[in-house]
Automatic annotation (TrEMBL):
Transmembrane segments: none annotated. The keyword Transmembrane does not apply. One of its GO terms (molecular function) is DNA-binding transcription factor activity. Keywords: DNA-binding, Repressor, Transcription, Transcription regulation. This is LacI family transcriptional regulator. It comes from Caldanaerobacter subterraneus. Pfam families: LacI (PF00356), Peripla_BP_1 (PF00532). Residues 2-56 form the HTH lacI-type domain. It comes from the Bacteria.
Length: 331
């Protein structure tokens, strides 16, 4: 049986144009309408009327699921989501999952029960196959974090190259004993940032030392704990790369309390460029993510899925920037 994508290809138009013809939209020219209707007849295409009718019953509500609503990183992402949503007549329900599969499932039941039109997932804990099935039946976009190989759209950055650039900056300063403060989870950003860290060391012929990897949980206190563990080593690090700004700031706090100067004794780099990264003393060198744009574009892609304008999953990577401040270079 022919599908809408085959009709669009035969008529030489977009899927959205075929959808407009089926819905008797005035935005289609008569010549284009005739071409689409001819393709429909030639392919014997029969639209799913039940599905179309259900899609028209919109709630004008979308879900935004995040692992920790108190994490300041998500503030600008959510602002982008909300700005685009409100501009298009939608409201956003913020859902804190705490990375709990059961809580995530409970929120997704709102989507499945047609109490929301779509969902933006900022750090889903579901499996690849489960996410693929969800995205096949409902409008879904992953934002920031994404699951590799899943058949769902995502908007993110290249975490590998961002981490590589951050560590390369430390190496270029002549620092070689570079520690990593990371997290124990399955997020792709965590894996890619560690891989970028290791690759930068490898390319500089710096031997990897597993003693220089310590773990936190994205919190300020965990950054302090990890830094103190590093300072207890006989051969202390000369630099620390943390995969989040909050942990990096916690590390600086611990370093200062132990009498170490930043960056003279230990240089520190974070990741995210949250609002108070530039306000801390010393101001934090960090990888800046386009947080607001991540939210905006994720919502724009979700709206296209809701309207049936996208058939295939979208893979979108936005730019990142290493912002050099006083935690690595003394001005």
């Amino acid at each position: 049986m022919a599908n809408i994508r085959e009709v669009a290809k035969r008529a030489g138009v977009s899927v959205a144009t075929v959808s407009r013809v089926l819905n008797n939209s005035d935005l289609v020219s008569e010549e284009t309408r005739e071409r689409v209707l001819k393709a429909i007849k030639e392919l014997n295409y029969h639209p799913n009327l039940l599905g179309r009718n259900l899609r028209r019953l919109k709630t004008k509500m979308v879900l935004a699921l995040m692992p920790n609503v108190s994490n300041p990183f998500y503030a600008r992402v959510v602002k982008g989501i909300e700005d685009v949503a409100h501009k298009n007549g939608y409201n956003v329900m913020l859902c804190n999952t705490d990375s709990d599969p059961e809580r995530e499932k409970a929120y997704l039941d709102l989507l499945k029960n047609k109490l929301a039109d779509g969902v933006i997932l900022m750090a889903s804990v579901m499996g690849k196959d489960e996410l693929t099935l969800l995205a096949k039946n409902y409008p879904v976009v992953q934002c920031c974090e994404y699951i590799e190989g899943a058949g769902a759209s995502y908007v993110s950055i290249d975490n590998f190259s961002a981490a590589y650039k951050a560590v390369k900056h430390l190496i270029n300063l002549g620092l070689r004993r570079i520690a990593l403060i990371t997290c124990k989870n399955d997020f792709i950003s965590t894996r890619q940032r560690e891989t970028g860290y290791r690759k930068a060391l490898e390319d500089a012929n710096i031997e990897f030392d597993e003693n220089l990897i310590k773990y936190g949980d994205y919190s300020f206190k965990s950054g302090m704990r990890a830094a103190r563990q590093l300072l207890s080593l006989e051969e202390k690090p000369t630099a620390i790369f943390a995969i989040s700004d909050i942990m990096a700031i916690g590390a600086i706090k611990a370093l200062k309390e132990e009498g170490f100067k930043v960056p003279e004794d230990v240089a520190v780099v974070g990741f995210d460029d949250i609002s108070f990264a530039s306000m801390y003393d010393p101001a934090l060198t960090t990888v800046s993510q386009p947080k607001y744009d991540l939210g905006c574009i994720a919502m724009e892609v979700l709206l296209k899925h809701i309207e049936g304008e996208l058939e295939d999953p979208q893979r979108i990577f936005l730019e990142h920037e290493l912002v050099i401040r006083e935690s690595t270079v003394k001005y």
